[in-house]
Write a structure and sequence with these properties.
Elements (H helix, E strand, L loop, with lengths): L15 E5 L3 E9 L5 E10 L5 E2 L2 E2 L2 H15 L5 E6 L4 E9 L4 H15 L7 E10 L6 E10 H13 L3 E7 H13 L11 E6 L4 E7 L2 E8 L4 H11 L3 H10 L6 H27 L7 E5 L8 H9 L3 E3 L7 E2 L5 H7 L4 H8 L5
Parallel strand pairs: 1-6, 3-16, 6-10, 11-14, 14-15
Antiparallel strand pairs: 1-2, 2-3, 4-5, 7-9, 8-9, 11-12, 12-13
Helix pairs in contact: 1-3, 4-10, 5-6, 5-7, 7-8
Length: 359
């Protein structure tokens, strides 16, 4: 078996969740208090320049590693173990059915044999892992096994970045799995504890928005769309003549001219709501489903003023912001006001940090 710790390994020791996106690196560290409640011990974010990470690929290794070192320092953490993730496009996942009662070694042999059919390159070139999901629902006595494989160089890039920042990578996950894990806590707070509730989770990144439709922990549909928060920055540049760096900084701090909300922000929010409605329409036309019960928005641009209401108006489905820290105890080291403002950006890193407690 070729494995980095494990794509699905368990880790009760202190663990950082570190999410590297095209626009920033985000860190979350979680603990538990005596009552067993989750405690947000640390969260911090460090921006990345455009082009350092493209489509999940590390283009500027030294610059990203340096940003990660700044982030670690800023967060004040002493924890070295880290969980990181690869974009779904870099990982091949496949559910297979195998006979129940196999030993770990027999399972490994079977998984490697099966993996050859689904992975378009030599097994020598991949990091491969698997986990038993549970009994098969279709064939009695068999088990459902999830295989995950990624090109070794993709895994080694993440591994190398962690090591360059003085960290020890113990888990490499898939970004969409991590965001789903964090969203699962929030879904449980919906009516009927979220059972049988169809939730459309939108993560609005800088350049790409990913959509997952989830029901009872199962993904019914997923799709990426080419729109994101960077388009708002471009509109600010065009409208006011700022440099892209200035525009991004002013967008984050809110120091923009008086006419910004009416002339730039509102039209952008409306067009984002239309993109969400369009993505849902794709889902309805390509599946038997014709509605969702709830829309969740995450990512850096999810908290734009008026976006929730605009999405509800466009789609007629209730829409809420995904704050992955809802219901957690907030530790002394967290600047709560800043955290609340940025919370939807931390969905994936929070899911990675939660891996510490998966038994």
């Amino acid at each position: 078996m070729i494995s980095l710790g494990s794509l699905f390994s368990r880790q009760p020791a202190p663990l950082l969740g570190l999410d590297i996106s095209s626009s920033s690196v985000k860190l979350v560290e979680l603990g538990r208090d005596k009552s067993g409640a989750l405690v947000l011990e640390r969260c911090a974010m460090e921006p990345l320049e455009r082009g350092w990470i493209t489509d999940g690929n590390v283009e500027k290794f030294d610059e990203v590693a340096e940003a990660m070192r700044r982030l670690i320092k800023k967060s004040g953490t002493r924890t070295k173990n880290v969980a990181m993730a690869l974009p779904p496009s870099a990982v091949i996942t496949k559910k297979i059915i195998l006979p129940g009662g196999l030993s770990e070694q027999e399972l490994e042999v079977q998984v490697e044999t099966e993996a050859n059919q689904y992975i378009p390159f030599s097994l020598d070139e991949v990091s491969l892992d698997f986990c038993v999901v549970g009994p098969s629902t279709t064939s009695s006595g068999d088990v459902e096994v999830l295989i995950a494989a990624s090109r070794k160089e993709k895994v080694q890039d993440r591994q190398g970045l962690a090591e360059a920042a003085g960290l020890k990578p113990v888990i490499i996950d898939v970004e969409s799995y991590s965001s789903r894990l964090a969203a699962g806590r929030l879904i449980q707070t919906l009516p009927a504890n979220g059972v049988d509730t169809m939730v459309a989770l939108f993560e609005v990144g800088a350049f790409t928005t990913s959509m997952q439709v989830i029901r009872n922990d199962e993904v019914l549909y997923d799709r990426d769309q080419a729109f994101g928060g960077a388009q708002l920055t471009q509109l600010i540049v065009r409208q006011y003549g700022f440099s892209p760096e200035e525009a991004e900084a002013k967008k984050r701090s809110g120091e923009l001219p008086d006419d910004y909300e009416a002339t730039v922000l509102k039209p952008f929010v409306d067009s984002m709501a239309q993109e969400v409605a369009r993505a849902l329409q794709f889902f309805f036309t390509s599946t038997p489903h014709n509605r969702v019960d709830h829309i969740m928005l995450a990512g850096g641009s999810a908290a734009l003023p008026g976006l929730n209401d605009a999405v509800t108006a466009q789609t007629s489905f209730p829409c809420g912001l995904a704050n992955p820290f809802d219901g957690m105890v907030i530790g002394d080291g967290v600047r709560e006001k800043k955290m609340r403002r940025e919370a939807p950006s931390y969905l994936t890193s929070c899911g990675l940090a939660m891996r510490r407690f998966l038994q």
